[in-house]
Amino acid sequence: MPEFIPMSYQLAWPFAIAIAWVAGEFGYRLTGLPRISIYGLVGFLFGNLLAGVLPQSEADTFMLLANIAFGLMLFEMGYRINLHWLRANPWIGVMGVVEAVATFVVVYFVAQWFGMAPLAALLLGSLAMSTSPAGILRVLNEERSSGQVSERILHLSALNCVLAVFTFKVIVGIGVFQTSGSLLDAVWSSLVVLAVSAGLGALVGVSVPGLLRRLGNLSRDATLAFAIAVILLVAVTHAFKFSPVLATLTFGLVARHRRVTLNQTQRNFGVMGDLLSVVLFFFVAATLEWRQVVGGMTLGLVLLVARFAAKMIGVAVFARVSGVSWRKGLLTGLALAPLSVFVILMLEQTRRAGVNLVDSLMPLAAMALLLEVIGPIITQRALIWAQETPETPDKPNTIKE
Questions:
Q1: Cβ burial, residue 275 (10 Å; 0-12/13-18/19+)
Q2: Any residues with CB less than 8 A from the CB of 233 and at least 6 apart, and which?
Q3: Computed from CA positions of residues 246, 249, 254, 255, in that sequence, does the dihedral angle turn out positive or negative?
C-alpha cells in the first residue's frame, strides 16, 4: 500500500489530462463548443476542487510542456503572417496599434478609478492589450475558417502579442528600477530580454531553412525540423529567462519569408500539437486559484466589458478604410476575445524571474478564467456570423477536407 501512494501521485497529471481530452471530445460533439474551452474548465476544476490530487513536484515539467505547446502555436501564427498584405493594406497595422493602445488606456483608467496602484494598473493594461494567439489559432484550425475576419484576427492577435510583450517588459523594468534602484537591472529585465529573444528567434528562423536546403526534400522534413527547433528555442529561452513568446513568434515570421513551405496537412503540428494543446489549456486553467478569481471578480467583469468595447470600437473605426464592412469590423473586434493562455504564461515567466504579480493582479485572474472558457466560444460565434466556416452555406473560399 505505501508503494501505491507515490505511484498514484505520479499518474495524477496524465490521468487528469486524459479526462480533459475525453471531456473535450464529448463536449465538442454534443454541444459544438470549442474543445479548448472544455479543457480549460476541466483544468480549473481539477486545480481547485481536487487541488491535492495534482502533485506540485511535477508542475515544472508540465509548465515546460505548456510553453512548448504555446511555442508551436506562436511559430505557426508567425508563419502565417503575411507582411506583403500588411504593406499593401497598412490600415490593418494602424487598426491593430489603435485598438491595442485604446485597450491599454481604457483598462488602466478603469483600474485606477477602482483604486488600483498605478504600477499594477499599468501592468494590467499591458496584459489586457493582448489576444491569446493560442486560443485564436486553435479555433481557426478547428473550425477550418478562412476569410477577411479570419485573416484579420490572425494578424491582429500577433500584433497584440508583440505590443503586449514589449509594453509589459518595459513596465516590469520600471518596477524593477523602483524597487532596486539599479538601471542595469531595469534595462536587463526589459529591453535586453526583448532584443535577445527576438534575435534568437530570427537566428533560428534563418538557420533552419538554410539547413533544410542543404538536406534537400524540404516538403518532407520541414514540419519535423521546425517542431524540433521550436522545442529547442523554448527550452533555451525558458532556461535563461528570456521570452519564449517573442522568440517563437519571430522564428515563425522569419521562417515564412525564407520561402520554406510548412506542409498544410500538418497544421497544429499534427498529433503532437493536438496532444500538447490539451496540456496547455488544462495546465493554464489549473494554475488559477479560486481565491484570486473570486477576489478580483467584480473589477474583472468591469475590465472585461471595457476591454471588449475598446477592441471592438478600435477595430470597427478602421473597418471601411481597410476594406471591409462595419459589420465585419465589429465581428473582428469581437473575435479578439481570447486572453488567458498568453497572460498566465507571461505572469509565470515573470514569477520565474523573481517578480510575483499574481496577487496584485487578482482581477486578471477573473478575466483569465472567464476568457479561458468563453473567449474561444465568442471567437467561434464571430467566425460563424461572418460566414467564414465550412458549415456556413454559400461561403466562398471554404477549406474542404
A1: middle
A2: 71, 200, 201, 204, 244, 247, 248, 251
A3: positive
What pTM value is reported for the model? 0.86
Q: What is the pLDDT of residues 379-401, one digit of tens each?
A: 999 999 999 988 544 343 333 33
Q: Which amino acid is at 251?
A: F
By CB atoms closer than 10 A (0-12, 13-18, 19+), residue 89 is middle
Q: Render pLDDT for 158-186 as a digit per residue (tens, 0 to 9).
A: 899 889 888 888 887 777 666 666 656 65
Residues 6+ apart with CB under 8 A from 118: 112
Q: Which amino acid is at 333?
A: G
31 CB neighbour count, 10 Å cutoff: 11
Residue 298 grid cell: 467584480
Q: Which residues of 214-244 are buried (b: 16+ CB within 10 A; e: fewer)?
A: eeeebeeebbebbbebbbebbeebbeeebbb
